Amino acid sequence: MTKTLNNHTRSAPTSTVGRGRAVTIAVAPTSTQFEDSHVTLSLSDSLDCYSSWPSPSVIVSDGAYGLLGFEGDTYDHLGIEEWYEPHVKAWSASSTPRTTLWFWNSEIGWAAAHPVLERHGWRYINANIWNKGKAHIAGNVNTKKIRRFPVVTELCVQYVLEATINGLSLKQWLLQEWKRTGLAQRTANVACGVKDVATRKYFDQGHLWYCPPPEMFSRLVDYANHHGDPCGRPYFSKDGINPLTAAEWEMMRPVFNCPMGVTNVWDRNPLKGPERIRVPQISGRAAHLNQKPLDLMTRIIEASSDPADVIWEPFGGLFTASLAAKQLGRRAFAAEIDATYYQLGVERFQHSTRLF
């Protein structure tokens, strides 16, 4: 299916003078959209696509780093907040409390973007560190000149869209509802059959808050409505008529399944070999400065979604997240504004024998 590019007026991209592209395909693509049963890839600004994409279970963001990495990237972290603002706003409008955002960036890039994410309702969960090891150091780095330790890491930060009930976050609402019962907070431990987890984790109002699993939430609800002040019933209800069920509570929590032994430090050498996309007839260099490993994209998508779920890749590049989504049986929607990257990325889906 072919779609023409929209020519909406946008603010001028930040200058990327001094950063050349290794590969440029002179011939324009014959189509501006590629589709199969699992992916929709568009040569377009993602801001023009969001309204036509179904609500996502996962968003994989790999956009501006403030490193002059591509046309339109910022030259330092100072422009990051403005760069991401319209995208983050659109993500929030289309997402649900079941949505997980994986935000790839440099340390300073993420720090600059974090206030924007919080402002639009994204709650920080965890910072994951891709440790590329000493092999990532370019040549003999002169630390006396750069006056810092060589950087061999990249961040992939996990966020979820903050769910609210009656204007309160879930952790605020849980504590408020329990207080309404007139019961001592410690009796929540009795309700859940635990020593102190309910008061120490479920009612915590700081960053150590732990969202109770559906079965524990159900126990809290049952205990509150049987033992709490009869004048305040029903407790843990959104409509004032029926308490929330375990199934309804589950729909307010994102999917997450952590493989055994995986931590937030990902020791993985820099991308090389046949997976690294090159166009030898044009250049011996890697086609894309910041191509992500397929295995890491597979890890985050598999951990935070179920088969047939919708995955967004707003800044497609070579569409690695979309390729991982396809291989996992998810549905991917992605956009890329650079025609060269778009064509190279689409080729990964057109050649079924290619592993990467």
Describe the structure.
The chain is α/β, with parallel strands linked by helices and 356 residues long. Among the domains are: 101-114 and 122-163 and 256-277, no CATH class; 168-250. It has 11 helices and 13 strands. It has helices at residues 80-94, 107-119, 143-146, 170-181, 187-192, 197-202, 214-227, 246-250, 294-303, 320-327, 339-350; strands at 33-35, 39-43, 58-61, 100-105, 122-131, 153-161, 164-165, 168-169, 265-267, 278-279, 283-286, 310-313, 331-336. It has a 9-stranded mixed beta sheet with strand order 1-2-13-12-3-4-6-5-9, sandwiched between helices. Strand 3 (58-61), helix 1 (80-94) and strand 4 (100-105) form a beta-alpha-beta unit. Helix 9 crosses helix 10. It is elongated and about 75 Å long. The two termini are 24 Å apart.
Based on the model shown, name its key terms.
alpha/beta; single chain; 356 residues; disordered N terminus
Helix/strand layout:
Layout: E1 33-35, E2 39-43, E3 58-61, H1 80-94, E4 100-105, H2 107-119, E5 122-131, H3 143-146, E6 153-161, E7 164-165, E8 168-169, H4 170-181, H5 187-192, H6 197-202, H7 214-227, H8 246-250, E9 265-267, E10 278-279, E11 283-286, H9 294-303, E12 310-313, H10 320-327, E13 331-336, H11 339-350
Parallel strand pairs: 2-13, 3-4, 3-12, 5-9, 12-13
Antiparallel strand pairs: 1-2, 4-6, 5-6, 7-8, 10-11
Helix pairs in contact: 1-2, 9-10
